[in-house]
Amino acid sequence: MSMDKPASTRQLKVAREIQKDLAEIIRAKGMAAFGGAMVTVSEVRVSPDLSVAKVYVSIFPTGKQEAVMGLLNDNLRALRGELGRQVARQLRIVPELVLYLDTSLDYAAHIEELLKP
Asked: How many whole angstroms separate alpha carbon 78 and alpha carbon 82?
């Protein structure tokens, strides 16, 4: 369990805004941009100084996760640039984006499979 102090209201608001805007940017690109995979921004956590945003994405189907994470990472600068245009009025500095694969859905599906009679 992490001993980090809880996120401030500002951190939570910025994280929600980034999650909403990034989800919209990714949705606007369409599934074709990601090889037919559906990409969802499941969570965003922002550092206390608002300089880094950890972005958790889930990718379906799971067989395309590695390829899609590669595409997302290759386009990180462009994503951050588009995000910057969206949040320009709310934030002075657009946080550095760090992408993580959210595997919680995979884990839930695995548990569900194990529990089947």
From this structure: 6
Contacting residues for 90 by C-beta, under 8 A, at least 6 apart = 14, 17
Structural domain containing residue 87? 9-115
| Domain tally, the chain | 1
Token look-up 């989800």 returns 23
Domain CATH code at residue 81: 3.30.300.20
pLDDT at 2: 46
The answer as to whether 73 is a domain residue is yes
Asked if 103 and 59 count as a contact pair (C-beta separation under 8 A), the reply is no
**Interval 30-72: pLDDT, tens:** 888 998 999 999 999 999 999 999 999 999 887 889 999 999 9
Is the full-model pTM beyond 0.70? yes
From start to end of the chain, where are the E strands? 38-46, 52-60, 96-101
d(CA 34, CA 80): 17
Between the CA atoms of 76, 82, 85 and 90, what dihedral angle is there, to the nearest 10 degrees? Answer: -60
